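To close the chapter, one final illustration. This time we ask the reader to focus less on the individual chains and more on the assembly as a whole: which components sit near each other, and how the overall shape emerges from the parts.
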Amino acid sequence: MEAANKALPDRVDEAYIVERIYSAVMEHRLPPAQKLNELKLCEAFGVGRMRVRRALLLLSDQGIVELEANRGAFVASPSPKEASEVFDARMVLEPAIARRVAVAVSPEYLAMLRQHIALEDEAREYRKGADLVRLSGEFHVKVALASGNLILRRVIRELVTRSSLIVGLFGASNHKDCPDGEHSDLLGAIERGDADTTASLMFEHLRKIKDGLDLAPPRPKEGDLKDILGLR
Amino acid sequence: MEAANKALPDRVDEAYIVERIYSAVMEHRLPPAQKLNELKLCEAFGVGRMRVRRALLLLSDQGIVELEANRGAFVASPSPKEASEVFDARMVLEPAIARRVAVAVSPEYLAMLRQHIALEDEAREYRKGADLVRLSGEFHVKVALASGNLILRRVIRELVTRSSLIVGLFGASNHKDCPDGEHSDLLGAIERGDADTTASLMFEHLRKIKDGLDLAPPRPKEGDLKDILGLR
DNA sequence: ACAATCAATATCGTTGACAACTTTTTCCGT
DNA sequence: ACGGAAAAAGTTGTCAACGATATTGATTGT
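The assembled structure is written out below.
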């Protein structure tokens, strides 16, 4: 095997590369701190180095990738402080967006959300863990999309992707990306047009996820090795 | 004169170029559709072409400039639909952010907001129109900053900058970027910790600005020149 | 005089080579 | 065998040249 790992499109541009890395992060396939070698990416996408570097620049601007001078690109590993900020931001923004969706959502988007819940149920039923991880994040993006506003969708997508990294880093082994059933409850509130309940369900949902993280100990710095090993 | 138009920093990186173009757009110095010539930017910033191109890529990703293949970079000129989306997004997000600021704002940020209002008053007093334009936008960014969350600040900054372009395009000549006094009212509600009023003032404030725009006629398409000139 | 065609110019997109830096491996002395 | 210095390999950052495309201006024929 060499190329054609997944049928690349005819024209590979920056956006496509960004999209693929986005997806890989959302599905927890790219772990935090993973090195992203330029040459390997070039081969993988069958594209010149320029395209790859531009894609990495865009990803770093969105906090998905960290660029270190002369060392290369790495999947971001957010600090506890950054992680907290991401979820705080979501707890401010997403309830407001969900509220608006509850107030006025088109039948098409409602159908999309219903179908999504069905997919989640199915993934739970058949123990498709990988799918469930992806779907859990995607639900939030689709809610934002259901507002009919692509700007809101973009903002949330960025935050959800970063959240995937954060859960991978700070989530306990038994951590659920999104507790079972809560998405369904949210959809119920939206269907009833119950704006207040929708907003508060979304807030509590996010709070629960954040509380399930272990953000207490600031990540060890370089020099603290002795502390870590208990040699003081 | 050649270089040193404004004392460039020792190290000019992409972020600095982006920042400067951001500012120029916010102050209505760079009009929509303005061509951004790579070579001229290189000379202006005293950097190689690569830096400029990377900065332009970042700006295009944020909707501030538009890249046309083989034609170059232009300051974005949002369509009425995009313009509407930007303000709709702000009307969803900013009230939620302002509410949170009203609930819990640190004394330092409160002082910052007070000082800002003083600057606005001063600019109005001495008829410094240019300053007032910049300050009107900056107020919203500072409110987001007052949440203590840099992610929220970043999101709002992006939207405010795009709004500057939109006002330049669709604002009537007598259009006020932000009606006099409303920022002051908002600060009042924040100081009282009145969350509901703060949120609703912010919403109405944005609605008023949007209503002051003339988004009715879709931007003329290429072939409609005759219509524009009344030659039919 | 006008329109269409063609050449000339300017600008952008891409590639390849090279320099700067980091990481790994090798080598040597103790 | 161990630690450290030096060499080698690998990777990233930068630049300059080249080809491709769009735009402008000149030319020609009617």
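The radius of gyration of chain A is 19 Å. Chain A has a mean pLDDT of 91. With these observations in hand, you are ready for the problems at the end of the chapter.
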